[in-house]
Task: structure prediction
Amino acid sequence: MSLRGLGVVLLGFVAAGGGAGCNSHAGPPALTGLPVRVTCTTTIVADVAQRVGGDRVQVETLMGAGVDPHKYISGSGDRKKLDQAHLVFFNGLHLEGKMADLFEKNHDRWRARAVAGSIPHEKLRTAEVDGGEHDPHVWFDVPLWKWSVGVVRDALSDLDPAGAEVYKANAAAYLAELDDLDREVRAKLGAIPKEKRILVTSHDAFGYFGRAYGFEVIGLEGVSTASELGTPRRNELATLIGTRRIPAVFTETSVPPVGLQGVLDDVRAKYQHEVKLIGGENALYSDALGGPGTPGATYPGMVRHNVGVIAAALAP
Result:
């Protein structure tokens, strides 16, 4: 099921309750004490909510570690998590497809905020995804992802004024950490010669990364993994890798590597060029964080893991 399918499921959730204004669920629960119950669509969004909210929040996630949001199938507990939440945070920019439309049209049911919603349009990459006009993978540009921190801080402060100073302090500390992370990323990637800064991945999720850090980015599939991979695209990518003698391509933790392996078989046969397929524990985190105890269990950890893997594969 694509995210369009998920939207149908969630629309059924709303319809089952009888519709806005006449259902048994009168709206989001009032905050009468701690913790603030927060439901987030993805692990990446949930990480921001936890860092800013700290001990004052209890964070639930709809899509778990390693889950591809482009092909997410709604679980039976999703409606309960949404209806019990004091606040709902989602990425926006149609990463969640029709689910985002439901959030925006049902403010009386859920207090939902798009963490990427405050990013100025001129800073966004153009891409058609599930009815949207922009590439939703904004978290791969660390300075751009900082905008999400302010959205979470302000929404929590509005709902829980008693905790406003805590949220403000947590957000400030996290923003400073992200500034340090961005400098660390630039220093690490600076060791890769410009002519070797070609990042080939399972799907086109790293466009913001390429723009921010000076990489040419090529995805086997489009911005959404729900798109179909055709023979022309597979042949095009095999020709590019073979003729340019690209040394390595990268799988992703949330996308099966079958498509990339097929392309590399074509490269080997047609161009007699061996390409390293970077995967396993070195697969890149793309649309989801890793589970507890993994290098990508947090957003900074995800970024460090990805950058370390890319630098090790492409640096001299």
User: Anything to note?
Assistant: The longest strand covers residues 198-203. Residues 67 and 254 are 6 Å apart (CA to CA).
